[in-house]
Every structure is written in structure tokens, then in C-alpha cells.
Hints:
A hairpin with a 4-residue loop joins β7 and β8 (78-83). The protein is globular, with a radius of gyration of 14 Å. By secondary structure, it is mainly beta. The strands form two sheets. Strands 2, 4, 5, 6, 9, 10 and 11 form a seven-stranded mixed β-sheet that branches. It has a four-stranded antiparallel β-sheet with strand order 1-3-8-7, with no helix packed on it. The termini are far apart. It has no helices and eleven strands. It is 0% helix and 49% strand. It has strands at residues 3-7, 11-13, 18-25, 32-39, 45-51, 58-60, 68-73, 78-83, 92-100, 117-118, 122-127.
Amino acid sequence: QVRLVESGGESVQAGHSLRLSCAVSGRAFETYVIGWVRQAPGKEREFVAADRRSDGNVKYADSVQGHCTFARDNAQNTVYLQIHSLEPEDTAVYYCAAKSVYAGNFVVYYEEEDYDYWGQGTQVTVSS
């Protein structure tokens, strides 16, 4: 069984940065691709970023390109999402999700239903 636990969410003022963590327990972490999704109050969940197994390339939503950085540490079974220069529009619950894929898989998964495992989320609140 795979378990994902997010952490790092805080209430901060605009302009600050945060690093969110997604700790993944279970075997064969390297076989999982990880996605970050967020849900702002009163809105649908929104894709933020995800990696690709074949080459480790990361795809970002247009809305966060240059504003977020995805990083993966296979030795620590952890994925990070750094959010730079936070804005009130970044206020949301941030979730990480995992999907097991074969080596060489070149697909980036953008849809919630593509993922098999989810964390409980971590709240980020940005005040102006």
C-alpha cells in the first residue's frame, strides 16, 4: 500500500515562498510519477505540476509556470513543490498524488482520475 503525506502548508503574507513536501511510503518509489494538484476555496481542483518517468521532465500548468518548482528526491522518497512569491490567488489546499508506471513511460498525467493514490492535502493561505 502506498501512503502520501503532504506537509509545509502555512499561512503567510504575499511575497513569501513556501516549500511543500510529499512524503511517499511504500516500495519502489522510483516507479511512481507524482502530481501536484490544488483546490482553491469554492473552485475545482486544478493541476499544478507533474513529472514524467522516462526522463524526469516536469510539466507545469500555465498558471504556475515560473512560479512553482517541482523537485524529487528518490533517496528520501519525497517530492517537493516550491512556490515562489506567493500571491493570495495561491491560497488553496495542495494535494500530491501518485501513479505507478513502467520504466520509459513518457506520459505526463494531468487528470485527477489518472492517479491511484492521494495524500490528505496541506493548506496554504496567503494574505495580502
